[in-house]
Structure formats: C-alpha cells, structure tokens
User: Fold this.
Amino acid sequence: MSLKLTDIVKRFKTETVLDGVSLSVGRGETLVLFGPSGAGKTVLLRLIAGVVDPDGGTIEIEGRDMDGVEPEDRGIGMAFQNFALFPHMDAMANIASPLTARRTGREAIAETVGKVARMLKIDHVLHHKPKELSNGQKQRTALARALAGAPQILLLDDPLRNVDAKLRFEMRLELPRLLRSQDATVIYVTQDYKEAMALGDRIAVMNGHGIQQIGTPEDIYLRPANIEIARLFGDPVINLLDVVPEAADGSGGVQVRLSDQPVALVGGYAGTVGTDCVLGLRPEAMRFVDPGTPGAIPVEVEAETPLNEKTVTLTLTQRGREIMVSRPSGMPGPDQGTAYVAVDAKDALLFDRATGQRIAPGAHSPALQEDVA
Amino acid sequence: MDTVSPLERVLRGLAITVVILFFMFPIVWIFLMSFQTNETILRVPPSVVFEPTLTNYTALITGKLETAAGTLEIAFMRNLWNSLFLSTASVAVGLLLGVPAAYAFGRLKFRGSEDIAFTLLSFRFAPPLLVLLPLTIYFQKIGLADTYVGLIWVYQLIVLPLILWIVRGYFEDIPADIEYAYRIAGHSWFSTFRKIALPLAGPGIAAAGLLAFIFAWNNFIFALVLASADKQPVTVGALAFVTASGIQYGQVAAGIVLSIAPTFALALYAQRYLVEGLSLGAVKG
Amino acid sequence: MTQTAPAALPRRRFRVGRRALPYLLSLPALLTCIGILIPFFTAVVYSLQRYRLSQPWARKFNWGENYLNFMSDPAFWNTFKVSMSYAILTVGIELLLGLGIALLLQKRTRFNNFVSIMLLMPLMTAPALASLMWKLMTNPGFGILSYFAELLGFEDFRWASDPSTALLTVVIVDVWVYTPFIMILLLAGLRSLPTQPFEAASLDGVPRLFVFWRITLPMLTPFLLTATLFRVIESIQQFDIIYAMTQGGPGDKLTVFQVEAYLNFFQFTNVGRSAALLMILWAITYFLSNVFIKNWLRLREKQRGEA
Assistant:
C-alpha cells in the first residue's frame, strides 16, 4: 500500500522533534530512514503506526487520512528496536498475536506461525518464553511477529541494532530476500549506512528535525546533498579538504590545488572561482601511481589497514593534511616513505564551505544553488 | 565496617536486644496472656510459668462466656466476620475502581491527570472525622447509615489512594512499546489492557490489594462513627468487648490475638511490598 | 502466508474516542471520591453555623463566630497544645529511634533482615488494638508494666489514668506502633544509597561520625523528610490510640483535635464547634500535605528513575 506523509510536525513538551516532514512511499517499495540517533526516525514510525498522534500534518495510507484511525485498524506490522516481546507469552503466542486479533482459526494460526518461524529458523524455540531466548532468537521472533499478519505496510525499527555482529551480517544478507517475499511496503530504520544501502530502494536521510535528502542509494552516495550526508555514507569516511577553486590556465575550466598540484574539476564549476569551498574525495576516488605521473600528488605514507575487501592507507600531504586512500585488497600498495596519488576528478565533490551544501556541476553561483531534495 | 571494635560489637548487640525486647514484648505477653485463666493472670508477682488453656479461645469461638453470674453472649466472631467482609469487599471495590484509574493516570496521561491523582491522594491526608461527621447525617437521610454498603464506600477513602498510587507505578514500569506492539498487531486498547497491562502489573496489583486489606482491617474510626454493634469490625468490637466482659482479661487477650493474626500473616506474605505500600509507591524496598 | 486473508483496508470503527478514554477509566474512582467531597463542603457550612443537635431550632449562620470564640477558649488552646505536644513528641522520638534502628540493621544480613521483618509487627497491629494491648499491660491490678514500675520504685504508677503520665503513656504506644514505619523507610533509603562515597571515605580514613553527618545524613534527607512529614500529618490527627486508651481523659489531658471534635459532636452535640475544630485541623494538614506531596513526588521520581 502506498503511504504519504505531509508536513508532519511533532513536539514533545516544548521540544520540536519533527518539523514539517513530508514523505511518500510507493506500493511494494522499501524506504530506509537513515540518520543519527535523536533524528526522529522512531517517532516517525510511531506516528505512522498510530500509537502517537502528530501535532500537525496528515498521514495517508492508500489515499485515506489516518487521523483518528486506531493503530489496530491500520493494517501495519512493526518490529521494535528493543523487540518489545510480550514477556508473559511464549514465542508462539507472540508471533500469533496479529492472527488472534483477527479471530483466525486455531489450525490456520499454527500453520502460519510455523511457516514464518521456519523461514526465520526459530521453529524449534516456539514454546520458549522471551527470557529463555537468545538475543538473536528474540530479534527473529519480533520480526516473525511483524510478518505473521502479512501486513501491507511493514515498519522495521532498527531491528538489527541490538544483535551481535555475526547475526547482523547474516540478517543483512537474508533480509532483502525476506522483504521481497512479503510484497509489502517497507519502512526500515537504521543508523548503519551499509544496511541502508543494501536494503533501500530509496533512502531518506534524517537529521535535525527533518529529512535532508531522499534518493536512491546511488544518488545519496554519489550526489550527497551536503557535507554531513557525505560524511555519514562511506567507510572510511570521505576526505574533506578546504580549497579555493581557481580558473584553469587557458582551457576555461576550473581547478583546485592540492599540494600545489593542479587538479582539474570536471563539469561546470565556473561560478565557484575564488570562493571558499570544501573538496570531497572518496578514498576510492584516488589511487597510487608511479612517481612522475603528470598531476600526481606527493604524500607521506603513515599507516595501512586492511578492511575486508579493501585496504586503506592513511597518508599525509606536504601540508600535513590527512588523506585516506583505499584500493582493492590484493592490489600492490606503496612502500613506506613518499608515494604519489592521482585523483579521479570526475568523482570529486565540491561543497560550499559556509553552508555545507553540495555545489552541483553546472551551477553558476553557489548562492543560487538549491538543495536537490 | 570490617574493623569493629569488641566494645562496639557489644554495644550494638545490646542495642538490638533492647529494641527487640521493646517491640516484641507486648505481642509475646498478650499472646501468653491469651492462654491463661484470670487466676494466673492476676497473680502477683506475674510469672511466665502457667498451665496453658484454650478456654479463652473456645469461649470466643462458641460465643458463650461462662461467668460466675451466668452465661454471657459475646459477639466477637461476628466482629471478626465483619472485619473480614468489610476489608475484602472494600479491597474488591477499590481494585475495580482503582486499577482502571491507575492505568489512565500511569499510562494514558491526560490533561489534568496529575491534578486529579493528587486530589485523590490528598484525601489520604485529610482528617477523617471532617468527612465522617457530616456523613453520619447524610447517611441517615439516604438510608446508608449502619449498612455495609455505606461502610465500604467510606473505606474507599483509605483503599483507593493506596491502590491508585501503587498500581500506577507498576503500569508506568511496563515499557510502552510492549503495549504498542499489541495494539499494532490488531488488538483494541481494551484487550491490550486485559492481556498485556493487567498480567504484567499483576504482582503490583496483588501487593496493593494485600496492603489495602491490612489498612482496611486496621481501621477504627470509620466503623466507630458509622457502624452499630452488629456491623462493627474487630477494632471497634474489641473495645466494646473489654467493657462488656468486665474482668475476663484472658478472653480480651485471645480476642486481640485473633484480631491481629490475619494482618500479621498477610504482612509476612507481602513483606516484599510493604515498604512500597507504606510510602504509597514512592520507595521500593 | 497466503492462507490468511490479507489485512483489510484501514477502516474506522465506532470506538470510545482516544481522548475520552482516560476520563472514562478514572471516572468511577473520581465519582466515588466526589461523594466524599460533598460532606467536606457540608462541614465547611456547619463550621459557620451555630448548630447543636440538641437544639435544632436554634440553628443559624453565625459566620466566623465559632472560630472567633476559639481565640478566648482555653479548651481550644488546650486541644491545640496537646495535639502539638503529641505530634512533636511522637515524631521526634520515632525519628531518632527509627534512624538508630535503621543504622543498626543497615547491613544486609540474614539476621538483620529477620529482625526488620519482626519489627514490622507492631506497625501491622491496628493502633486501636495496640492501645488495648498496652491497656492490659498497664492495668493497675495485674499489668506487667505496672508491676515493673513498682519494682523500679514508682509507687502506684497509674500510667494513662494519671493526668501527669497520660500523655507519656499514649506517646509510648504511638512510638511502639509507628517507629517501625520510619525505620523501614530509612532502612530502604540507607540501602539504596550509592556505595562509592562511603568506600572512598573509608579508604581516606575519614572518621565515621564525620561520614555520618556529611555523607549519610544529607543523602538520606529526602527519605527523612518524607517519613517525617508523613508521620507529622498522621500524628497531629491521631485518634485511634488516644480514644481507645482514655477517650481523651483523664479530664481534658488528651483531647487532641479529632478526639475533641468527636466528643463535641457525639457527647455535647455541638456540631458547629466540632466542625470548626476539624476545619482548623484540616488547614494545618492541608498545608503540611502540600509540602509532603512535593517531597514525596521528588523521592518517587528519583527512586523510579533508578529502578
């Protein structure tokens, strides 16, 4: 089912938690709400579920205003970050709770619960009380409970937050398949950018009372709306360097200088010449090259860390600025001492230093630049 | 505290002994007295050596007091029954009224809820006679004078605030998400209240009920003002009994033992919750 | 999961409104108590009237006269004095004793827990029955305490029947019943205190008396305040113990507020004076209970926060 939020405002006492949030999610789509804690993600889910009332704005499900519709009538399934299992009921009764509400027959309930439990590999602990379950089993029980009623809208509040790393890894692989099999509209809350990228058809980045950018994972990664979002996505974190773009000799293009080596910016950044900017370079947008390569920047190699499928090298520029460079593991890297780095200029991001907003290529003046979201 | 000097150890022991003696002696002494005849009670000097007898208890239970002057009817068992009935019924009514209200105050929170909860609490601290004296006149008019219904109503003054404030705390302790989860699963607020909130607050509700029972049982002034002889609980009845039985001290002692035994038993059973109850839910034991 | 019907479209059903629900839930309890509010206002009216049950024809409003009369009424000032002495004496003794016992039993040992449960027994005794127990023990004929008094050289020590020792006797009964109340609250308080400051002080070799005054007492203050105010409010209204022991006698020695009001109403059928007395008592307790509730609430929040 489709879901549409318009200008949602929520205050607790005097503190405004959500300030004019609008969002629409299409049928069968998985939208990830991503953002640091305190950004209002959980509150937003509760508003959609109907257990908390908004102070302003409307929530529509399939085009119908949900004002005054009780949570039990919204056809929603929800998994809570802290699981919120019913402590006095066994896993079976927990999972069956959406079905008992509908007066489903005993056998039908047993069958559905069994099926969901098998899918989530908890069919052997169905008669255990929550306190007898391991954390992973609790998490799966909570998920099973949200799925059992075959809801049209599924709200998942950071379901992997409170489980150990191994289980989180497994579930991250399993979840997309599971969600697809549900054919439901999913809103998934997480603080983990990898989870967001892996699961979301689209990602809504929340920060400071509202949504800062909505887009596909690719959009958010390649074209972040601002420095903050650029920093939140990517591991290791994006390199940010203060620069002042200048007109390139002759060609009419724009370049920045890194350690006195000119780096040409691809695309139309003409309006930025002479303004204070921040250059964003993803670690993978740089590579080590042989000394003497034209435009190569000399750096000092400080340390090297293997990180799963890639290796990250911490280097220092001649001005003492830290730059991280990553390369696929297995590719030979530089020795200690001085190495040379080339920049893939087409992957460079440019931000306005004063506002933090990204400057899209082709814009004539940073002042005219509007948030794409 | 590990380096306690011997002197301090002795002083501490002495202090504890004195404390135990002061607080336990009256109970022990009355208990002993209840197994004695008037002859042994009136001995000078008093002694703890005597031949125990159950005659005091049999007299109370059969309701017949044999004296030199003849047989005297005593209604003590009636008082005991009244205490039991009044306390049980008051607690039942109190739970019925108080638990939903506690849920409303603790979980739903609404405009004015705190003010109302405090108003209810302040009843606990008003002088009971202030209400009781005009009430005697009203009760005469509306036919509630000297009825169980009227008494049970007035008993709510002590029972309700207690139940309300203890149970409220237990409802507040249930994570809201658990109730939300049940609502979202498709259940109405009422079945959420019944299937989630009530079972999870169960121990607190039981404790509040037990404590309210003890307080109702120990109440004196309500029944003194509002009840005539055949509706009086043991607290009032025992006092009348002293006058009626004249010098049958053994029976008075036995009556006291029978009257305080139930609250002692309940207190032992509910001791884990006593601190919480006595502080109206403010302090956890 | 195809067997179960997919959730129907969101629907609206007739339901008790979300906003009305809490009111509906608390209404029965409220109504029950509002029934009690009516007599309260009646009492206010009575207190402003000349009203004797024996002379119903002479009933009329005399406005503040009942209160004004108190000014020059030695019986009223006696009541005031007796009530205050009773409250100050009982709470003072109970506080010192309760704190002392709580400190003695502070360590969580089997024995200490057993003793603290045992000491709760007086508190579980109905105050009226407690008075009766002490009455039996102070009986001039056979009372064990009268016998002890004689052993100690007090000839014909008459406890509650003697005007000079009547207050002492009821205070002892009150102390016997209610010290455990203060003890158990302070014990819970002491045991809930964080241990680090005490460990630090003991490592630094700070004298124990200093620790008590500078660490224990200040940290225990919310508990002390709550227990004390609670007891003062109850003690100033004490009725059961005094009425069961002497019905206010001998003479007017123990006519505290509620006893005096009770006697005025039922013996002298002076409703107006009785109501005015109770209104003054109410004003005192209302003031105290407001102070109390603030403290109690702060303690409650704090304790719940830690739990």
Summary: Residues 3-224 of chain A form a domain with the Rossmann fold fold (CATH 3.40.50.300). Chain A touches chain B at residues 46, 49-51, 70-72, 74, 76-78, 80, 82, 84-88, 97-98, 100-102, 145, 149 (CB under 8 Å). Chain A has two domains: 3-224, 232-368.
